[in-house]
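Ticket 4471: requesting a sanity check on a complex prediction with adenosine-5'-diphosphate. Repro inputs:
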Amino acid sequence: MKRIAVITSGGDCPGMNAAIRSVVRTAISKGLEVYGIEQGYKGMIEGKFKKLESKDVANIIQRGGTFLRSARSERFKTEDGQKEAIKNLERFNIDALIVIGGDGSLRGANVLCKKYGVKVVGIPGSIDNDIYGTDMSIGVDTALNTIIRCIDSINDTASSHDRTFLIEVMGRNCGYLALMSAIAGGAEAVLIPEVPYNIERIIEKIKRRYEEGKTRSIIIVAEGVGSAYDFGKVFGMIGGFETRITVLGHLQRGGSPTVFDRTLATRMGAFAVEVLFDGACGDMVALQKTKMELVKLDEVLLKRKELDPTLLEIAEMLSN
Ligand code: ADP
Ligand code: F6P
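Returned structure tokens:
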């Protein structure tokens, strides 16, 4: 193995730069050449390869986003697109590839490995924390800290006006961000796709809380259950509360990565390069308890990551 390439693909997340930096510097220290491919699989198809030196990744560990840029590529899902990408990997003499991205990007990585024999290792990067096999993905901690800052701010104005706020958070079909931010933000209720909810019960609870003297209510809505605007209408109409809606949107994906994400990304990047030397292929690096481990992409993509039931119990208990 002489030359490896690295891409960031799918939804970006804070910590991707830290992961690229770690891959580049670990690889160079082990005598490898490293190429960065711009814009994920799109750039792989279009031949956007550039050699990366140690200085190219200076001063990026603290920056959100990804300096290699990211993209979603429908064409890469087709055989025609994949063959074009393979041609470019061969043209640039790439011996192995590291893919940093979410569930979809890892699916693409597995296709390259299984169908075309490319030596690939994946690094889980997505704010959603929906990737099986790893306790945490890169970007999750930063996104949660961003959400919590927003909830705290909304709390101030909500308390001043005795209002009920519905705050919609990202996560695609996964309720992790919603659940954790509800716990850490002291919300009255959380709506997530994994657990059936009863709107009437939540309304009763909020009424009771107001009667007990509470001056505001915060309800966290995971985007996977629907629009906070739609739920807001129901809470306003049936509950009679003065309701306001905040959709946090893409601000959850940006910002300087936390210490946790910088160190997780750095460990994962270094580990990904090391395991390539040990012959890893079709694997994903993962954080399990406190250690770096390898999980087969086949298993990652087959299984669904479950929410910890004790966290669900805690959220319910503490909001009562
Ligand atoms: P994320 O990686 O954040 O989950 P996406 O689901 O959009 O984001 O996936 C990113 C890219 O990965 C897609 O645009 C596509 O190029 C590639 N990809 C996703 N699923 C597949 C698949 N089944 N086969 C090949 N490539 C895929
Ligand atoms: O997967 C990360 C994520 O931010 C999801 O939480 C969200 O549903 C989606 O990406 C948004 O995608 P886009 O950036 O294409 O709007």
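Notes from triage: The longest strand covers residues 3-9. Leaving this open until the requester confirms.
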